[in-house]
TrEMBL record:
Top-level class of the enzyme under EC nomenclature: hydrolase
Subcellular locations according to the entry: Cytoplasm
Top-level taxonomic group: Bacteria
Similarity comment text for this entry: Belongs to the TRAFAC class YlqF/YawG GTPase family. RsgA subfamily.
Cofactor: how bound: Binds 1 zinc ion per subunit.
Binding-site residues, GTP: 112-115, 166-174
Protein name: Small ribosomal subunit biogenesis GTPase RsgA
Native source species: Radiobacillus deserti
Length: 293
């Protein structure tokens, strides 16, 4: 029995990387019976039946998983958001951050197209950069004229599994293509072979980049809080989580409770007002969600 990581799943086959070799494996029927679907990113035990082929016998416990794209054991997510076209939005950024924090994934924030905004907008984004860095987030700025700045992210990939997240048109593909031309080759081949206007489900694959693995499919295609429970929301805001022990009530939701350390920090200017307002809007969203049965 050998151990390895699934780096690609396609047409019922799982491609497992083990000791710098790739094995084409099938899953045992026991998975279907137990309703376990192996995912890209899973650590697995497998038997080699023929040279380069085998059967997955066991899937190791996961530290996290995404539904779209279907991938497990992610260490970090690079959130690419833009300064312009589409405009920079702290609300959208916080939405991504909450989804990523809820999965216990480390976020890195990249703001692209900084050369396309006015000085006034630039100073607002720089102010946000300072505030997010104070919370503890890595926050990088990029311009369209200096794509090599995207390479600044490369050292972060080492020994990690990374997904790239962000809305359409912010420069996720450009970033991946700058980091590794292999990504470009793949997207070009796929678009040419499929023709325009055809919908297809792309398989997810982990590609090796700078000593780590990067998912070739953007993460978080849905930005709904369908899986997030209200009591878990405060822990998705690190600056609230670190103050929660100072609240009068245990399990304080930092909303209507008295003697709340988070509300005091907002009033004192230690937590940005917009972060708290976004937090309250996310509470409303979760509370108004239709019940699941």
């Amino acid at each position: 029995m050998a151990e390895g990581r699934i780096i690609k799943a396609l047409s019922g086959f799982y491609y497992v990387q083990s000791n710098n070799r790739i094995f084409q494996c099938r899953g045992r029927g026991v998975f279907r019976k137990n309703k376990v679907t192996p995912l890209v990113g899973d650590m697995v035990d497998f038997d080699e039946s023929n040279p380069g082929e085998g059967y997955i016998q066991n899937v190791h416990p996961r530290k996290n998983e995404l539904i779209r794209p279907p991938i497990a054991n992610i260490d970090q997510a690079v959130i690419v958001t833009s300064a312009s076209q589409p405009d920079f939005s702290t609300l959208l950024l916080d939405r991504f951050l909450v989804l990523i924090e809820s999965k216990h994934i480390q976020p890195i924030i990249f703001v692209s197209k900084m050369d396309l905004v006015s000085d006034e907008e630039k100073s607002k984004i720089l102010q946000c950069k300072e505030e997010y860095e104070k919370i503890g987030y890595t926050f990088k700025l990029m311009t369209t004229k200096e794509p090599e700045l995207m390479r600044e992210i490369v050292p972060y990939f080492k020994d990690k599994i990374t997904v790239i997240a962000g809305q359409s048109g912010v420069g996720k593909s450009s970033m991946l293509n700058t980091i590794n031309p292999l990504f470009n080759l793949e997207t070009k081949e796929i678009s040419e072979s499929l023709g325009r206007g055809k919908h297809t489900t792309r398989h997810v694959e982990l590609l090796e980049v700078s000593g780590g693995l990067v998912a070739d499919t953007p993460g978080f295609s849905s930005l709904e809080f369908n899986e997030l429970e209200l009591e878990d929301l405060p822990s998705c805001f690190p600056e609230m989580q670190e103050r929660s022990d100072a609240c009068k009530f245990r399990g304080c939701i930092h909303n209507k409770e008295p003697k709340c350390a988070v509300k005091q920090a907002v009033e004192a200017g230690d937590i940005p007002t917009y972060r708290y307002e976004h937090y309250l809007s996310f509470i409303d969203e979760i509370q108004s969600r239709k019940p699941r049965y």
